[in-house]
């Protein structure tokens, strides 16, 4: 690590670097281990020096067992319990974050910074109320985010606890399966194909200890050491925690657990890397656009306010209307609730998926699953039941052998300890299977691996001592291994094809009597049948309807794959890997396809596939622009699961497959995947609903109040915009539980569409608010047509009204206000006493009417703004599309509060500075004082206070605001359809009028053309996705060590000393 640092550093830095290099090389690799652990004799110690360093790779097996106080029979339960207490659980310490720092972190982002800047401006202007409200808004959003995400995280961790890695260990002389975290040094564990090594272990001898008598393990250590190829591990070698077993099965002794393992030490040294989720990048881009819009309007307002209207600005509440109005743009334009709404929606959605059987180990995988358009599905266990049975009647014995012989030797070839499905079904199909263990002793078993595709059992008949070897495996492999292969291959191939035509999987069984190099005799062929799941055909049909093409990727024979495809209603345009490789090598047209990309994209599936082919298929499809989902359950599926956009480990998958997957299914079958896709699309729909809403509201607020200020020199109070954000944005939390219709086609983030539609919605709503404002303040529409009191602020209207009203109060138009009001001495000194009654009357009327029009406009903006959610949440007509109950409750609750505020106002708050009390001319135009303006403080003519943005209840103008918002809401749906048609959102151009208006899914055509048309209907502006680091899900992603989930790239010096352990003769030195 330090060698990678800069060459240019200070002398002190060099000394620090040298000290740490020495520490890394000499001591970092030493992990503590007690040698004084013996349940038989606590006083007995091992003859080692005080805190000796022992390299478990170099010492003999017996010496290792002696140091560890272990035996081949394993530990007793009592010994294991003592050691668990001494060494702690076999897991890395779970990273814990300070809850306070986590909470404050929700207020540390560009959007929050802008709000915090607004709070600073408010306090600088001595606007304490707005300052408190802005800060409260920040804390409310942070609190909601913290509480909701914490609850979802706890729930998901509880659900994923069942996925904790297991280990097969000898306890009290018997093999038992326990959670890997309960392993202790000295345990004897069994590791086999597909397992993730649960702790640092030393491989024990097999057979007579000679290399010829043992089968090595193939161990993939790429995640730990960077080695690209699996490493062979013989007796005496060590395997590190977190590595994957690719081949073989062996007994091993645990010599280090938890933080004392190589994995643990490397993790502690290297730390973790924080990656940025795609949703965070999307929020950043949306936030940046909002901040840019806000910034433009701030500059415009400052320029016009100070440069055109020549406003003054002094410290104190109400003395700087321009800066106060800047707060309106900042607070109203910032989507402050966006991080809360989107993160809570994602967290609650992931929790819902987990309850439905799809546990998400990487949050951004939810987005990618929503956009998945091709699902490469394994056949066995996913499309089928994975419950093999032997069709005894159609067994095909060879030569002198009988069906009974085929079943017998098939049972003898089985290793029931590992409980492999094929082994178990062969064993259980033999009627006398209960006598096998009495009559035969298993001496050696060569397990299956994906390359050789066979197993060999070495047995001795107890009664006669006769030594036999029984092979079983892929029929072609077994037949070719027989001594008379040429004679029997043709007939066997016909039989294999016959089985395949009936959907059977053939298995070959061969026998050799005696030791040494075998000369195999074919016993016969065993037909195995794995029937399709009852719901798979319907599920595949639903996938096609959702725009997802399902490709079968199977290791079975081509004919078996095609037969299964026929039964499931899938396409049978399938190929073997031979055709794939031929196309890849560029041998011209292959089965009518011009290129390998063309072949893979148009194929319905591939058979006889090896792991590297799965990886190749996924990569080719990704290069063609598809979003790929890949299912798998075995260690051979891990590379493809990692490569796919959405790696899906099916139920009962191996630890290696789970570790590579983004989503782990807890329920069997493909139907769970379809449910997860629908759930992911609903989550995506909720997130895009809010994204469209918040962008539109930013443009709407900025343009509405920016234009009113620039054109009419008219200001809006910060307190109302803060309340608008509190009620409307706060109510958006309900979107996380909204009832939505998932998209008919795969989803993609399309920020161009979001911004374009947001601008159009925002400008339309701005127009609605401007027309409403103009009718109230620059026309007599409501007065003439509806008989309401006037809010007309035009100079002529005010002058006319005051000319008639002042004489009614007993004054002349030229009466100085010093004769009407009792002015303070500073007011008299400033010359305000000479202001005429006419000018003061017009000022008071404009102030009162403006204060009431603000309340009415606030309500209209609030109603029409939040009602936009009902439009953007669906493609259908918003008035007939039913939303979620909480969405309605949130809307009605927020607008009820907004209506009360509009009706009653704030008694003239924000109060004008240096006011006149007990105003004479501040009545309603219809006569009488406003019942909600008891304070009756008004500004003096000619002062900056006349621009104070106060709020007085608008009484029955709230009815006009509701009706106006409802009328203009009818125009939003046509705008939505027009924009969606222009942008071709969700393939709207391919849908009929009925489907568009009532949100009915289109009938997807079959075959390749269906996939192409659905593909072409998707948005082209797909945002780049950045994978989030795989998180630890109660140990499911930790490579066998619960609590850690990242791949490591350990320093070479650490790798070189990985098997070295420090031991003590006096007792435990764990953690030293």
Summarize the structure.
The chain is an alpha+beta fold and 1072 residues long. It has 38 helices and 29 strands. The chain is elongated.
- β-strand number: 29
> Which regions are unreliable across 5 or more consecutive residues at pLDDT < 50?
1-51, 270-275, 1000-1049, 1065-1069
Main sheet: which strands, in order across?
12-26-25-24-13-21-23-22
Our measurement of the CA-to-CA distance between the termini, rounded to an integer number of angstroms, reads 22 Å
Question: What overall form do the CA principal axes indicate?
Answer: elongated
Can you offer a commentary on this structure?
This protein is α+β, with helices and mostly antiparallel strands and 1072 residues long. 46% of the residues lie in helices and 13% in strands. It contains 38 helices and 29 strands. The strands form six sheets. An eight-stranded mixed beta sheet has the order 12-26-25-24-13-21-23-22, sandwiched between helices. Strands 14, 15, 16, 17, 18, 19 and 20 form a seven-stranded antiparallel beta sheet that branches. A hairpin with a 7-residue loop joins strand 16 (440-446) and strand 17. Helix 32 (837-872) runs parallel beside helix 34. The two termini are 22 Å apart.
Task: Spell out the blueprint of helices and strands.
Layout: H1 11-26, E1 31-34, E2 52-55, H2 61-68, H3 77-87, H4 99-105, H5 110-124, H6 128-160, E3 166-171, E4 174-179, E5 188-192, E6 200-203, E7 217-220, H7 222-225, E8 231-233, E9 238-239, E10 244-247, E11 249-256, H8 262-270, H9 278-307, H10 321-333, H11 338-355, E12 358-360, H12 364-370, E13 374-377, H13 379-383, E14 389-390, E15 396-397, H14 403-412, H15 421-429, H16 436-439, E16 440-446, E17 454-461, E18 467-473, H17 475-481, H18 485-501, E19 504-513, E20 521-529, H19 536-545, E21 549-553, H20 558-568, E22 574-576, H21 577-584, H22 596-602, E23 605-607, H23 611-623, E24 628-632, H24 638-643, E25 646-649, H25 655-660, E26 663-665, H26 671-712, H27 718-731, H28 751-777, H29 781-786, H30 795-808, H31 825-829, H32 837-872, H33 885-904, E27 905-909, E28 951-952, H34 957-969, H35 972-983, H36 993-998, H37 1007-1017, H38 1052-1056, E29 1060-1064
Parallel strand pairs: 1-29, 13-21, 13-24, 21-23, 22-23, 24-25, 25-26
Antiparallel strand pairs: 2-29, 3-4, 3-5, 5-11, 6-9, 6-11, 7-8, 7-10, 12-26, 14-20, 15-20, 16-17, 17-18, 18-19, 19-20, 27-28
């Amino acid at each position: 690590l330090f060698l990678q640092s800069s060459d240019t550093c200070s002398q002190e830095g060099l000394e620090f670097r040298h000290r740490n290099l020495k520490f890394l090389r000499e001591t970092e690799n030493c992990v503590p281990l007690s040698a004084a652990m013996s349940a038989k004799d606590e006083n007995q110690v091992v003859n080692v020096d005080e805190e000796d360093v022992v390299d478990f790779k170099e010492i003999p097996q017996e010496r290792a067992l002696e140091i560890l106080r272990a035996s081949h029979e394993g530990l007793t339960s009592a010994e294991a319990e003592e050691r668990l207490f001494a060494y702690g659980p076999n897991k890395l310490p779970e990273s814990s974050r300070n809850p306070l720092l986590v909470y404050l972190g929700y207020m540390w982002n560009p959007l929050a910074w802008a709000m915090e800047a607004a709070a600073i401006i408010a306090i600088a202007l001595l606007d304490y109320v707005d300052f408190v409200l802005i800060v409260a808004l920040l804390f409310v959003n942070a609190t909601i985010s913290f509480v909701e995400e914490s609850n979802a995280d706890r729930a998901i961790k509880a659900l994923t606890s069942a996925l904790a890695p297991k280990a097969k260990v000898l306890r009290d002389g018997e093999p038992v399966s326990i959670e890997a975290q309960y392993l202790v040094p000295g345990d004897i564990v069994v590791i086999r194909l597909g397992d993730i090594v649960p702790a640092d272990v030393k491989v024990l001898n097999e057979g007579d200890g000679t290399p010829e008598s043992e089968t090595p393990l193939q161990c993939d250590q790429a995640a730990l050491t960077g080695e690209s190829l699996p490493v062979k591990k013989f007796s005496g070698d060590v395997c590190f925690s977190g590595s994957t077993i690719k081949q073989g099965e062996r007994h091993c002794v645990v010599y280090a657990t938890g933080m004392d393992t190589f994995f643990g030490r490397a993790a502690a040294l290297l730390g973790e890397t924080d990656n940025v989720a795609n949703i965070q990048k999307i929020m950043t881009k949306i936030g940046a656009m909002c901040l840019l819009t806000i910034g433009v309007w701030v500059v415009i307002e400052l320029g016009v306010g100070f440069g055109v209207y020549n406003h003054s600005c002094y410290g104190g509440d109400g003395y700087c209307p321009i800066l106060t109005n800047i707060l309106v743009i900042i607070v109203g334009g910032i989507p402050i609730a966006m991080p809360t709404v989107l993160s809570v929606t994602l967290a609650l959605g992931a929790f819902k998926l987990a309850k439905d059987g799809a546990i998400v180990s990487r949050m951004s995988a939810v987005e990618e699953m929503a956009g998945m358009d091709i699902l490469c599905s394994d056949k066995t266990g996913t499309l089928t039941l994975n419950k093999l049975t032997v069709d005894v009647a159609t067994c095909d014995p060879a030569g002198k052998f009988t069906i009974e012989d085929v079943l017998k030797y098939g049972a003898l070839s089985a290793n029931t300890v590992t409980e492999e499905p094929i082994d178990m079904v062969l064993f259980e199909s033999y009627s006398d299977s209960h006598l096998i263990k009495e009559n035969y002793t298993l001496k050696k078993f060569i397990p299956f691996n994906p390359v050789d595709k066979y197993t060999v059992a070495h047995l001795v008949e107890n009664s006669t001592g006769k030594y036999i070897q029984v092979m079983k495996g892929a029929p072609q492999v077994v037949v070719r291994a027989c001594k008379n292969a040429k004679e029997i291959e043709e007939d066997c191939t016909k039989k294999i094809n016959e089985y395949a035509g009936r959907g059977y999987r053939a298995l070959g069984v061969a026998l050799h009597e005696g030791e040494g190099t075998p000369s195999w005799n074919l016993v016969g062929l065993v037909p195995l049948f794995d029937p399709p799941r009852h719901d798979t055909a319907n599920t595949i049909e639903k996938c096609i309807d959702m725009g997802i093409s399902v490709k079968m990727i199977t290791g079975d024979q081509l004919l078996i794959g095609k037969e299964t495809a026929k039964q499931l209603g899938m396409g049978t345009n399938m190929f073997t890997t031979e055709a794939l490789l031929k196309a890849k090598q560029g041998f011209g047209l292959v089965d009518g396809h011009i290129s390998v990309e063309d072949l893979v994209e148009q194929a319905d599936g591939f058979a006889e596939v090896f792991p590297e082919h799965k990886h190749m298929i996924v990569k080719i499809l990704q290069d063609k622009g598809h979003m790929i989902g890949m299912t798998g359950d075995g260690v051979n599926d891990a590379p493809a699961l990692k490569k796919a956009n959405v790696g899906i480990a099916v139920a009962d998958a191996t630890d290696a497959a789970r570790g590579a997957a983004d989503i782990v299914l807890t329920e069997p079958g493909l139907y769970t995947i379809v449910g997860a896709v629908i759930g992911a699309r609903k989550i995506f729909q909720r997130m895009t609903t809010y994204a469209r809403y918040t962008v539109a509201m930013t443009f709407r607020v900025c343009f509405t109040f920016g234009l009113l200020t620039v054109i009419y020199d008219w200001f809006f109070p910060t307190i109302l915009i803060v309340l608008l954000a509190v009620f409307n944005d706060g109510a958006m939390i309900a979107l996380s539980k909204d009832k939505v219709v998932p998209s008919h086609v795969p989803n993609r983030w399309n920020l161009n569409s979001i911004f374009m539609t947001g601008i159009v919605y925002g400008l339309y709503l701005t127009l609605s608010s401007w027309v409403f404002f103009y009718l109230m303040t620059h026309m007599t529409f409501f007065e003439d047509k509806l008989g309401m009191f006037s809010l007309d602020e035009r100079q002529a209207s005010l002058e006319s009204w005051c000319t008639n009203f002042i004489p009614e109060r007993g004054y002349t138009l030229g009466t100085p206000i010093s004769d009407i009001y009792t002015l303070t001495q500073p007011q008299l000194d400033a010359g305000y006493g000479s202001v005429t009654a006419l000018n003061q009357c017009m000022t008071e009327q404009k102030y009162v009417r403006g204060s009431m029009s603000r309340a009415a406009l606030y309500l209209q903006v609030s109603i029409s703004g939040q009602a936009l959610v009902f439009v953007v949440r669906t493609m259908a007509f918003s008035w007939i599309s039913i939303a979620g109950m909480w969405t309605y409750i949130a809307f009605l609750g927020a607008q009820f509060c907004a209506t009360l505020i509009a009706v009653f106002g704030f008694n003239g708050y924000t109060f004008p500075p240096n006011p006149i009390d007990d105003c004479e001319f501040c009545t309603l135009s219809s006569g009488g004082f406003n019942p909600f303006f008891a304070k009756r403080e008004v500004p003096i003519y000619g002062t900056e206070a006349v621009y104070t943005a106060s709020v007085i209840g608008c009484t029955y103008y709230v009815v006009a605001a509701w009706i106006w918002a409802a009328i203009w809401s009818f125009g939003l749906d046509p705008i939505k359809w027009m924009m969606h048609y222009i942008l071709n959102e969700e393939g709207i151009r391919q849908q009929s009028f009925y489907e568009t208006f009532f949100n009915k899914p289109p009938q997807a055509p079959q075959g390749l053309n269906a996939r192409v048309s659905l593909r072409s209907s998707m948005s082209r502006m797909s945002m780049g996705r950045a994978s989030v680091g795989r998180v630890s899900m109660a140990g499911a992603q930790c490579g066998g060590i619960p609590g850690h989930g990242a791949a490591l790239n350990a320093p070479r010096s650490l790798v070189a000393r990985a098997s070295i352990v420090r031991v003590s003769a006096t007792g435990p030195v764990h953690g030293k």
